[in-house]
Specification:
The protein is of the alpha/beta class. It is built from 18 helices and 6 strands. 46% of the residues are buried.
Length: 499
Amino acid sequence: MGSMNLPVKTPRLLRSRIPKAAQLRADVLAGLVVALALIPEAIAFSLIAGVDPRVGLYASFVMAVSIAFLGGRPAMISAATGAMALVVAPLSIEYGVDYLIAATILAGLIQVGLGLAGVAKLMRFVPPSVMTGFINALAILIFLAQLPHLAGAGVPIYAMVAIGLAIIFGLPKLTKLVPAPLVAIVVLTVAAIAMGVNARTVGDMGELPDAFPVPLIPNVPFTLDTLTLIAPYALTLALVGLMESLMTAKVVDDQTETSSNHAREARGQGIANVIVGFFGGMASCAMIGQTMINVKSGARTRVSTFLAGVFLLVLCVGLGDIVGMIPIAALVAVMFFVAIVTFDWHSVAPATVRRMPWTETLVMVVTVAVVVWTHNLALGVIVGVVVSMVLFARKAAVHAGLTSVLDPEGGTRVYSVNGELFFASTGELVGRFDYAEQGLDRVVVDMSNAHVWDSSAVAALDQVTEHFRRHGVQVQITGLNEPSAHLHQELSGTLTGGH
């Protein structure tokens, strides 16, 4: 674990500290497992996007190798993903792969711009309940994505999956020298070949590449019409890719108890996508499933990400015939394992549900439901954040209170405002003052225990002041903290009392 604290500002892979032998072995073997898991995924996502399988495989290779140098989160895996494939599918199917490549390059440039603009800082506004919903939804999607491979497969295939899971969960109790998923893949492949099991294999999913990718320029007209056509797709790709990548980086931060440079990750994803486009690949981003395989296999450094890409290409180009014999059932077992360990079971335990505020549970459930229903991770996170904001606003509005006391000498009443004052909490507040109280000459509005957040709160204080003045009552606002006083002075110019 000593190599977990790699400096996140290291610009080059070779400048990072050399891992200890045990960590290096874990990174190498984890990279191999990830590469094997990437192959069927990349092929499937290529088919979703309506392009040749090589487009997805080349993208996964180039992205993994590039992000190992450019990214801000060691041990995170980025490659072709289903979410990105779904976004770009209409463009590639109607206009061809060259337009897909052009959109990928433009998406990368947009991501670089967003990274430089500080988009990574927006992660601060994603509450823990949304993060939990994001993780649980991904686990469910990973699980559901494997079911079509098992539909009508027969008892032998079900048995292979069960044996694979038994190896993956059981082997670590005996030894952790070799990643259990890798052992499961090898054992099931050898057994399927030796026993002549009629199982669907990786080779059945599509043709593997037989050559290394070469740089290219997309064959599209460099015109405003082309830009207008690809820009909406590129912008969506950029936003979805950054959302998934930054959320996945946060998950790995929590899993490994280390920090990462999210700003660098955002810029790195963009630069890597530009490189991917010029090598004929499709837009890519972080993959939670493969990342969890990598982390759970013991990987902690950039070496694992780099080797995952290298192994992927070597396996496809140099060992394609052998890789093609791997039964899909073996990879299904690995992905089932990923789904099981990714899901936050503690979040749905009865004791946790009873103890947690119902609002946080609701936000988590809404996030999960939207992601699973739409298969759109970015949309689920956005909806979850919006729901969380609405519930927070509701709670803060309820907590905006008002108490008052009459001066013993009469003629002056002191109102004390408590809580956060903003658009959702000020509506009822204005009506809670007694503007027509008899014998009142002066009112003091004490803001010592309140904070003014927006123009709605300033407008409410102005309304209170105006209502009292109509009844001949002098109003003094006191106790404003410095930010509140500044905002009140700037927006209304009626600050009569003082901080």
